[in-house]
Fold these 3 entries.
Entry 1:
Amino acid sequence: MGAHRVAVGSRAERQEAQQRVKAAVDSVGREEIYRGTVFLVGVLTGHLIAEPTGGGQSSSEPGVLGGHKRQEGVLRQ
């Protein structure tokens, strides 16, 4: 059995996205793209981990996700 691909967007949209990625890499460099990607993954992961149960709101302020504050080296709520 062959692998099945799910079509997402048109060929023109994919080519346009590839051109935007290439332009970004040419503009700031591959290392900076890697750093930015790792940063964004970390922020999103932190948001998902800190998401409160029961539908409450979490703080979007960096370092205070989920309302937790670090005091004297101990994580406190």
Entry 2:
Amino acid sequence: MLSSISSSSLARLAVLILTLPACVLGIEAYCHLSGRYAATTYYFLKNAAFSDPTNAVFGDSHVMATSRIPEFSFYGWAGEQPEELNTLTRYLYDATKPGKIILQADPQWFGGYHEKRQKFVTQRNLINRRFPTVLSSAYYWETLRPNIVASGYDVANQIISSAHAQETSPVRSRAAAAEKRWVELYPRQDFNWTWLSPDDRADLTEVRVLEQNPRADFVRSTSAAEFEEAISRLVERGANVCLFRTPVTQEYLKMTSSIPDSRFAEFEGYINKIASRFKLRQVDFRDLPRNFSDQAFANSDHLLDSESIALWPLVARACFDDGRSVDEPRK
């Protein structure tokens, strides 16, 4: 009797042992192949885990995760914060030596709209690069059940929307109405920023500038410390780092000096000191041989996709191929 029970238990254990790897492989395949895992969140995580980070571009939604430069990987997340940048550089270059690195050098790294914004790029959410299975990501695990039994959800919407819980003001009310018109027009063929009225563009731009205005005392913030630590790690690992200021409209540029308590100029001083301290080359979009008129933009600080495709090879050449001294300032 005992022998029979023991044999039965061993048989069940053997079946479990044999079945478990098949279940894990099945779940792994499902996470790679299911359309429910096509959202930007999953694409970003898989791109970070399975791409070659030797030559790379880092930033926020101006960068995203689709490469625009041959032999470069792009690691950008909408609304990315310095803490997330630092996590990424630690994650990617633990066992890989960095080569050519382009780092977005924009004021919004320290913008007020980051307050209370949920971080997505965390060690917990990232896929283990040493044992690259998506099931090593807490985000995959936490969305697995909802994705199997119902439509998956995309935390990006939660991250972005939570950052816009701002106080109501006349300009924000007008901008909210203008944004609805923008959302309606944007999907149409050949859309560009000039399709909106000058008043709509002005309201949307003002709100954007206010949100991206660096926070007070940002230079001494933990965010600045994280930003500088990420750069220091790259430089110490031998990277050739170039700082790039991404395109914005002329109206955006003008408003950076006209809003109350503007700290955009303070950021320019800060990033210049960072470049000098680490001996980094700086490239400003205004240095590039391309016209960034309003027709090139989707909104006040994002280029149309066709323009972005044309932009990034120019940035790479300006960063690494023009022979200019890293200490030479922008004209």
Entry 3:
Amino acid sequence: MPDMSSSAALAMTHLVPLAEVDENKVTPGVLGFIVFAVMALAVWGLMKSMSKQMNKVDFKEGADPVAESRAASESAPAEPKAKQG
């Protein structure tokens, strides 16, 4: 049976670099979070305002007079021509 302690030790050595913090590494920190949160709130507010303005729009398209006259002429029965002779 293989020794489990060696495999556990190997797994721990792979996880140790993930837990270490590099002091020279630049991170966004609290200021980055605050800027991100303010931008998210601004986008949310703008989207809410846009939705409210779009709901105010009541667009009703007027009838097209050319299409109405064309539809009326097509639906009207044609008069039969008088028979000659």
